[in-house]
């Protein structure tokens, strides 16, 4: 009896690398097409896996969107934590870190995946809940320094500037970004 040996190439399984490639590609596709238009098949084709390979890591599109959100928020958390390390833990520390990160070029201008995610969250109650949960968690962590309505107004103002910049192709909508950032940061200091 002759046993035929398969000559087919078998890729070494690297599930974490495949999962990361799916997330990175989903962010890229969402930035260019909008999150709602990203299909599982287009994603699978772009990554070079089967639809089953995508579903192995993310059982449905909602889980994929949630993972993309968590991926982006993880980066936001790291950036905020880096700015918090520069703070002394006084009144408004988290809000200052939040404003600084919000106004940074990568978040403010360059990260198209944020644009896609934020625009899709506008009509997505699940996405809105994810953001609200993230913010509630961060505020609970910094309740001693940032539980003040004055600081909440500063964070809302930073969000408004960021959303205005994300929602328009015209980047000059904010004439002097650094002056606005400086004013918001000044508002995070204790009022005398």
| Count of strand segments | 0
**Silhouette:** elongated
Mean pLDDT: 82
What class would the helix/strand composition place it in? Answer: mainly alpha
Number of helices: 11
Helix content: 55-70%
**What is the N-to-C order of secondary-structure elements (H for helix, E for strand)?**
HHHHHHHHHHH
Q: State the low-pLDDT regions, or none.
A: 4-10
Main sheet attributes: strand count, strand direction, barrel closure: none
- Kindly provide the radius of gyration, computed on alpha-carbon positions and rounded to a whole number of angstroms: 21 Å
Distance between the termini: 92 Å
What share of the residues does DSSP label as strand, in percent? under 5%
Give an account of the 3D structure:
The protein has 192 residues and is mainly α. The chain has 11 helices and no strands. The model is unreliable at 4-10 (pLDDT under 50). The longest helix has 24 residues, at 61-84. 69% of the residues lie in helices and 0% in strands.
């Amino acid at each position: 009896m002759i046993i035929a040996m398969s000559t087919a190439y078998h890729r070494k399984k690297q599930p974490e690398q495949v999962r990361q490639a799916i997330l990175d590609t989903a962010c890229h596709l969402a930035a260019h097409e909008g999150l709602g238009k990203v299909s599982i098949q287009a994603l699978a084709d772009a990554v070079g896996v089967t639809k089953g390979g995508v579903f192995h890591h993310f059982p449905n599109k909602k889980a994929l969107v949630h993972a993309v959100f968590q991926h982006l928020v993880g980066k936001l958390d790291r950036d905020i934590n880096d700015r918090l390390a520069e703070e002394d833990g006084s009144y408004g520390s988290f809000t200052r870190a939040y404003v600084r990160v919000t106004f940074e070029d990568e978040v403010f201008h360059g990260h198209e995946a944020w644009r896609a995610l934020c625009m899709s969250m506008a009509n997505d109650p699940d996405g809105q809940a994810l953001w609200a949960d993230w913010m509630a968690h961060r505020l609970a962590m910094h309740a001693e320094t940032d539980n003040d309505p004055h600081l909440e107004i500063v964070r809302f103002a930073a969000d408004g500037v960021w959303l205005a910049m994300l929602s328009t192709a015209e980047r000059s909508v904010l004439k002097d970004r650094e002056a606005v950032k400086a004013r918001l940061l000044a508002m995070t200091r204790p009022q005398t």
